[in-house]
Amino acid sequence: MMPPSAPKDFLRLHLRDLPYFRAILRAVEAHFYQEFTLPAPTLDLGCGDGHFATLAFDRQLDVGLDPWGPPIHEAKGRGGYRSLVQADAGQMPFPSASFASGLSNSVLEHIPHIDLVLSETCRVLQPGALFIFCVPNPRYLTELDIPARLKRLGLKSLAQAYTGWFKRMSRVHHADDPDVWQERLERAGFRLERWWHYFSPQAMRALEWGHYFGAPTLLPHKLTGRWILAPYRWNLALTERLVRRYSVPEPDPQGAFTFYVARKPGAGREP
Q1: Of 19, 58, 77, 145, which residue is most buried, by most CB within 10 angstroms?
Q2: Residue 35 CA to chain centroid, in angstroms?
């Protein structure tokens, strides 16, 4: 009898390939997906370069969809999908009821035409299909560290300008509360089953500062396509020790991100 395999250390796996501020968030999200069974065929809406899916799931996902060519090309090399499709999620090239489950990891907040995308997602899912996704909520902007420091100095206008810049820089169109997402989901034809906040305010501030501390990784990524040139324990041990406290895979009522579990009504049963 084979001994049970040890659970994946998602933080360590992500730190090998990503700047720490992305790794701490993606590690938490990867843990959450382990709770769910996603029946095939599964659609990954906004698959990007495929890095997250190859670490979070032990099987190939059936279809990864993304509107951008370079990430799709990179995802093909990672081998995390049976098929990759370059298309706008507001006009998916799939017949209705094509997929038995769907997910979208930190993608929907970037999409201006979100109502159309949610309606299309509902169309291509089978009745009873699960759709799980995560997005930032208002604390993504209200818990930023630099604006808080500026406000304490009486520089409220500068604080507001920085918050606006951070939102544009991170291309976040939607940082909304669950009631807003529930209305969107219901308009699209989904039923929201549950949600939880995660990623503490302290972790959010670590992520914010990581955009600046991680700047030295931009040049090697541009030159080699890799964020981390030496993905070894001796090089990453100190970083891991410093940031692990921020990568807590548990709900947090004050968290800056929210995980949603929705379902297309109809036949089917809980995973």
Answers
A1: 19
A2: 16
> Strand 99-105 vs strand 42-45: parallel, antiparallel, or unpaired?
parallel
Type and span of the H or E element at 163: helix 156-169
How far is CA 2 from each of CA 5, 9, 34, 88, 190, rounded to the nearest angstrom?
Answer: 8, 20, 21, 44, 41
Q: What pTM was computed for the model?
A: 0.93
Sign of the C-alpha dihedral, residues 109, 114, 120, 125?
A: positive
pLDDT in tens, 188-237: 999 999 999 999 999 999 999 998 987 777 767 777 777 777 888 888 99
d(CA 11, CA 30): 9
Whether the CB-CB separation of 130 and 102 falls below 8 Å is answered with yes
DSSP secondary structure of 190-208: -EEEEEEEES-HHHHHHHH
∠ CA 54-259-106, rounded to 5°: 50
Half-sphere exposure of 154 (CA within 13 A, CB side): 0
